[in-house]
Amino acid sequence: MVVAMDNDDGRGKEMAGFLIKHHLGQLQSIILSSDPRLHYPLHVDFAELMDDNPSLAHLIFSQPTEYLPLFDESAIWAQKVIFEDFKKMVNASVKTYVHVRINICGSPLECPDSKFIQRWKPETPSPDRHSVLPRSVLKSIFLYIIRAQGYRRNTATSFPVLFSAAGEALGLCKDDLVDIVKAGDDVIVTGVLTAKWSSDMKDVRCDLDPVLVANYVRRMNELKSDIDIPEDIIMKFNQFWSDFKDTPLKGRNAILRGICPQVFGLFTVKLAVALTLIGGVQHVDASGTKVRGESHLLLVGDPGTGKSQFLKFSAKLSNRSVITTGLGSTSAGLTVTAIKDGGEWMLEAGALVLADGGLCCIDEFDSMREHDRATIHEAMEQQTISVAKAGLVTTLSTRTIVFGATNPKGQYDPDQPLSVNTTLSGPLLSRFDIVLVLLDTKNPQWDAVVSSHILSEAEQRKGNHDEDLNDIWSLTMLRRYIHFVKGYFKPVLTKEAEKVISSYYQLQRRSATQNAARTTVRMLESLIRLAQAHARLMFRNEVTQLDAITAILCIESSMTTSAIVDSVGNALHSNFTDNPDQEYAKQEKLILEKLSCIDDFPVINITEGSLLLYVCIAKVITSPPSATPL
């Protein structure tokens, strides 16, 4: 039943008046549109409607199948009311196909092709069957859910758990809502919950499946975070850095102590985790190519070195995360797979697609087959997945951070390259910004300190300096801090930072002991991302020489052979120092002395991120010393 415009209660006129009052601009834009055959959406905020006319909002909420079509008719009538002002314009006309879209949260698991809807199927009478016209027996209700978070994160979910135990539901999009979402997108959906009959077969009971007939769909890929940061928390961040204005590195270490506090020490790993989660600034170079801002981290270490602990804690820090293992993952499970349902093919999103805008943790990375590892090359660098399966050709976004953990193949041999020790290919290793090697070597002093820390954690002792800092930087506070610095700061490299990064990259290319799999143009991009991430961690909008030196130290820690710092040591035994600013001064002096040998090289502007510029840098470095720089 559709309520007519001339009904006694005048609801149609109330709707038209509401549209003219609050959405006059949208109505004018629709009237001035040139093509009258298109379907035009008219977006309405339900909260705004509730404030303006609560009784009308209640009717739409309780009887959506009757009053939503009336809302569409009211939009046409509202156009006629204001059309007098546009009569003289050539393209102005009253559009017939106008749909009022009233503003539920999840990721579309499957996106089949567009097709026609069969509302009912008349049956032909037969001697043993009656003539029936099956229809839904469930009463339709209007659902209005904002940012619903009750869905399972370990499976590909499409709508909240209120629909089914698996957290999935079928959504039906019509008219202008067709083809606006892809598999893996986060969406807010407003619609009418109804039911459809399953396929009727002889001697099989016919079931009803819930269907959400969408009235409004909004993609949320750019607004993924569900973290609300109050103003008083931001004031605490500012006050914290004001207190550590004279000793900024001590303040940074106070934040790092809150990362995975159950693991003692491992300063280098905690710094790498923080920089990876924060990431750099994504930008577009002069040729229009997007340069990713997300960093990737790989931990290579012996069993029992805390790799899985860091993976789980990082997943808690990220506002969106997917955890999987290499042994139970395939190329289709990581990227996307084509499945057949009811005679048609559709795409089902994998772990990397579902983690778009967040973090994808892959434990036991070495357990994956070589073919499966090769499928994530495009996802890690280009941040997309190109699919051409079963007649479906599309490109899905995978703007995710990849955090991997793996064991070395047998006993780790420092004399062999990283690709031999891990059985990972060079192209895959070059895509990781940081690769840390955690070797469980014999060190009686370190073993005594670690055992004491574990026992104190078991006894739940209080009053420790580390525990006091953990009370300040709790898990919730760390999540808010990482989210805030990622969204607020867009660091820009200074001339000093550019010179340090450029000189270090050239020195690495010259080094006779360089790791060919790691020393590529990607390492230069990694240095920029890590320096920008450290500037964000330090609550700054400018990348200074300190940030560049710290990025170099992270890269040095991930090398099997160090080109500059000969005393980096084992990342597993790295600990927090009492005076980090003094320790940094020593490392800065050492690195600048090593880089002084190539001061005759020109300072290269690397902030633009141009691919052509990177090629020019490589040509300068690989040319003989007597050659004229480009």
From TrEMBL:
Principal cellular location given in the protein's record: nucleus
GO molecular function, one term: single-stranded DNA helicase activity
A single GO cellular-component term on record: MCM complex
Tree of life domain: Eukaryota
Broad class of enzyme this protein falls into: hydrolase
Domain MCM C-terminal AAA(+) ATPase: 251-454
Family: Belongs to the MCM family.
Protein name: Probable DNA helicase MCM9
Taxonomic source organism: Sesamum calycinum
Lineage: Eukaryota, Viridiplantae, Streptophyta, Embryophyta, Tracheophyta
